[in-house]
Amino acid sequence: MTDDVATDGGHDHRARRDRPAELRRRRVVLAGHAGDAEAARRALDDPDPGVVTAALGALERLGALRVADVVAALGRRAPEVRRRAVELSTRVHGRGARSTLPATLTDALGDRDPLVVVGAAWFLGERRHRPAVEALAATALHHADARCREAAVAALGAIGDPAGLPAVLAARGGDKPTVRRRATVALAGFDDPRVEPALREAAGDHDWQVRQAAAELLDEAAT
User: pLDDT, tens digit, for every residue of 175-192?
Assistant: First the structure.
């Protein structure tokens, strides 16, 4: 009984401790709907990660999210803040959006949180950021998390730089089925004589989705 009371008391204490942060988060969300960009920007310095992620979303809603805000958020310790920053990065415009931001997202491929890496790879593929090809290839070849390898392969296919093809070919031949599928589709982004033989090899893969993707791409090439 004593232990239960102590545990309940601990939960009550944590609830009391977290309540101010939750109230601040709600105020930031309301600021985003009320057009108060100043209040949302002040919240970027809040010590609570939930408040900071709400502030990023509020600023994006108001069209006031800056490259510097995303860069600073990517340097925060809390992974949820970094994930939110990457998620919103494609919606940021203005000074640094074509230079500082892609460079920062390339660095984010080395983040310790896999979801940040996945988001960074998606951003770089969407932006067709060729300077990231080397880092994306390293991610596709060596990252411990298959989700990150898959996202990097997809980005390499979207960019279509010849320097990225060896990593895609390697992923197509020797990775998990999800990565092989993505690599097979990514081959369509390259104009190279090695692509067709790789697709023909993929057409005999033991994973039916890999075989299907390869067959569809070979049919398209034949028409």
Answer: 999 999 999 999 999 999
Helix residue ranges, H only, the chain: 2-34, 37-42, 49-61, 67-74, 79-88, 100-107, 114-126, 133-142, 146-159, 165-174, 177-186, 195-202, 208-222
Task: Sketch out the chain's domains with CATH numbers.
Answer: 96-222 (1.25.10.10)
CA distance 152 to 186: 10
pLDDT tens digits for range 88-146: 999 999 999 999 999 999 999 999 999 999 999 999 999 999 999 999 999 999 999 99
The alpha carbon of residue 192 and the mean position of all alpha carbons in its chain are separated, in whole angstroms, by 28
Whole-angstrom Cα distance, residue 162 to residue 184?
A: 15
Locate 142 and state its tokens.
């060596």
What is this structure's pTM? 0.89
Question: What's 70's DSSP letter?
Answer: H
CA distance 138 to 186: 16
